[in-house]
Design goal:
Elements: H1 6-11, H2 13-22, H3 29-39, H4 42-49, H5 53-68, E1 71-75, H6 83-86, E2 94-99, E3 107-112, H7 119-134, E4 137-141, H8 147-156, E5 164-167, H9 181-190, E6 192-195, H10 207-218, E7 221-224, H11 232-242, E8 247-249, H12 260-268, E9 272-273, H13 285-292, H14 302-305, H15 314-321, H16 325-337, E10 341-344, E11 347-350
Amino acid sequence: MCLFSYSEIMNDKDLFNKLLILRTPKIGPVKYNDLIQTFGGIDGAIDAMRPDGTLRDSVLREMERAQKLNIHYISDDMDEYPVMLRKIKNHPPVISVRGNVDTLRQRSVGIVGTRHATATGLRFVADMGCAFAAHGVAVVSGMAMGTDTAAHVGALRADGNAQTIAVLAGGVDNVWPLENESLYWEIVARGAVVSEMPVGFSPKAQNFVQRNHLIAGIAEQLILGEADMKSGSMTTARFAIGANRPLWAIPSHPADLRAAGPNSLIKSGAAKLCSGVADFFTDEKNSSDNKKNEKISDSENPVLDALGTIPVSESVLSEIVKKTISEIKSILVVMELQGLVRKVDGGYVRV
């Protein structure tokens, strides 16, 4: 059964036509803007393109799916469109959002880095994310494992809503990576998931570069954690530089390849050295937040109770505490950030 009637589509004809153009193969923001300028607007471009019935049906199905999943389309002429993203040349004319749209109105900071971050790096990033969220600044990242996850998890440790924005390479309904499914739903509940790709779209390798561009565009400033020279996070940093956004980098030991990216940006002067929360906030709010977010006790966490000096795998923990493996993974990420557990061969041990 169709969720959109023909008359409803006509009431939102502008959005429908924008999507018709954007969903046409080989048309991105640059070509979209060229078409609008050449033909004097959306309607003129549509008349010139004459999209066929197959494309129209595809866009209709996408809009139906979006309505069913409570996904919102935000055009760049709407107040909800991120202010900083609108300033980027050839920004996406339409983005889709799942979750709290008001999150896009927040001040924002991007925090990105390697998927293979050190435990120290993860804790540092999580604390930064918590501090920014506690000060009303939404943390923008890509929901990848490692640094991105730490940034989101840290932001969600703060009270309230609208703390974090996850930018995806696929559609906003496409959970990726699957290990972060629980995190995805928490972000939907308390923040926002954003993408410029069609609803229902499964990401390809090249789409992650677009995602990185979107992260840099939404954020007022960017903080780079551990990252090697060829990482996607360095691409995000270059996008931030190109957009004249303040860039910060967290230094690390030069013998570690994960330090090469941030250290090189600091050395060249492209990034400011980020030494911690005090670089951004001078009040004592963060210290009180840290007290509030002290390590959880044994009695509060059955997963922690199940761990000791002998490694226990995620699947075994899942059976012991009667939670899904996805839930176990999310819990373990948080506990590793808090320094409660450590990953070793064979599973996790208690620290």
